[in-house]
Amino acid sequence: MTIQLAGQKMLLGGSWVNRENVIEVRDPQDNTLIDTVPAASKEDMLSCIELAKEGAKIAAAMPVYERMAVIHRAADYIEENKEKYASIIAQEGSKTIREAAKETARCIQTLRISAEEARRIQGETIPFDQMEGSQNRVGYYQRFPIGIIGAITPFNDPLNLVAHKVGPAIASGNAIIVKPATVTPLSALLLAEAFSQSGLPPKVLSVITGHGSEIGDVLVTHPAIRMISFTGGVEAGEEIVKKAGLKKISMELGSNSPVIVLDDADIEEAVESTVSGAFWAAGQNCLSVQRIYVQRGVMKEFEEEFVQQTNQYRVGDKLSELTDMGPLITEKEAIRVENLVNEAIEKGAEVLTGGERNGAFYLPTVLKNVPEHCSIAKEEIFGPVVLLFEVENVDEAIEKANAVSYGLQGGIFTKNMDQAQKAIAHMEVGGIMINDSSDYRIDAMPFGGVKKSGLGREGIKFAIQEMTEPKVVCYKLSN
């Protein structure tokens, strides 16, 4: 089915524009052409930045109630057209229609939280008379928008992760330029459509579609861009840091998420949660469960139940309500996952189930006895593969959980508060879920990681902190 989306235009400084050069957007399930979008040029991005300079002044001058109203109206528009949004997410990406509907619902919530947080951008009074000689001074600080934000977003949550950058940016009075993933640009353009319908002033928001090699460096390096908000891979993140210069940087760079299952855990709950956490969106989820450390006493039971539930996962047509998992985003990505699994097998890993590829589809796969020096044990898989490891106790589990260069989120299943507290204190992650898998998240919480998993925190309130600067005001009073 061919989708018509605003004439396949991009939003440049408030105007919907075409370009002669286009990018094809294809369904990863069968490689059918869905639509085309403009392939923006370097000159397009430079023009967009000049317009955003004016947009930043307009955004900063918007009173809070107007920012709130605009964001709420955008959320209303998405809610009124939620089936359309879910359909686009499912067709251009990897998510099933049920997963896409949940992402759409989360996007609406992300925007509503952004609107509410706009009213809570507050400062504090400062007791200047704490220093001798400052008895006649009073003052405070308040937060101001930083200006223009450049946002680079990934394919795996093509609507909600864009909303996590756009919502806080507008709530805090900034202009923002979004460069969405080349393979999933339609959802970001639909978000822009919602804001165009909401009464957002022109030039505050732009969504520029194009190849990173052509427009990415312009966005990252331009001195007028005061912050880069990036979600993507570690290598790209490191390149951005090298090129960005003196500007704020917020990055979520993925993970290799561990979950610990102790012998006092509710095994049924642990299995159900981690199966979902491992294979949601075909494992293309930065919080995806990748490594599970199971205490020896319950290893056999956990393994049998986990494999049984994995085998019940229904893989197939994304648009069917009966499907649990669709394809990876491209056949190339499926081949990459296949190669990682094959390397582990060659080095001694045992396949408990899965391990087969058909085009862009890769079956949900469970591996055991994976040598810890294998790439699949150390790096982010970003595919539907999970590794099971047996451990003696919580201390060994924590030590092995920490033995990678990532640290986004983790989980532990136990009824023992002392064991849970030990994990809380010693697991090197940005978030730890007790009796839940690593992939649990709400859109209002601080979200980010340690080590190679990123810099700074998202989650609306916390993103707004990153997107504003405190300014101190001090009054010297006459005696």
Describe how the helices and strands are arranged:
Blueprint: E1 10-12, E2 15-17, E3 22-26, E4 33-38, H1 42-61, H2 64-80, H3 82-92, H4 97-118, E5 124-126, E6 137-145, E7 148-152, H5 160-171, E8 175-179, H6 186-197, E9 205-207, H7 212-221, E10 225-231, H8 234-244, E11 248-252, E12 257-261, H9 267-279, E13 289-295, H10 299-311, H11 331-346, E14 350-353, E15 357-358, E16 361-362, E17 365-368, H12 375-378, E18 385-391, H13 394-401, E19 406-407, E20 409-413, H14 417-426, E21 431-434, E22 450-451, E23 454-455, H15 460-466, E24 468-476
Parallel strand pairs: 7-8, 7-10, 8-9, 10-11, 12-13, 12-20, 13-18, 17-18, 20-21
Antiparallel strand pairs: 1-2, 3-4, 5-6, 6-24, 11-23, 14-17, 15-16, 19-22
Helix pairs in contact: 1-7, 2-4, 2-6, 3-4, 4-5, 5-15, 9-10
**Fourth-tier CATH superfamily name of the largest domain:** Aldehyde Dehydrogenase, Chain A, domain 1
Rg computed from alpha carbons, rounded to a whole number of angstroms: 23 Å
Main beta-sheet annotation: 7 strands, mixed
CATH structural class of the largest domain: Alpha Beta
Mean pLDDT: 96
Strand order of the largest sheet: 14-17-18-13-12-20-21
CATH topology of the largest domain: Aldehyde Dehydrogenase, Chain A, domain 1
Q: Which segments are poorly predicted (pLDDT under 50) over 5 or more consecutive residues?
A: 1-6
Catalytic activity: (2S)-3-sulfolactaldehyde + NAD(+) + H2O = (2S)-3-sulfolactate + NADH + 2 H(+)
Domain Aldehyde dehydrogenase: 16-473
Pfam families: Aldedh
Function: Part of the sulfo-TAL (or sulfo-SFT) pathway, a D-sulfoquinovose degradation pathway that produces sulfolactate (SL). Catalyzes the oxidation of 3-sulfolactaldehyde (SLA) to sulfolactate (SL).
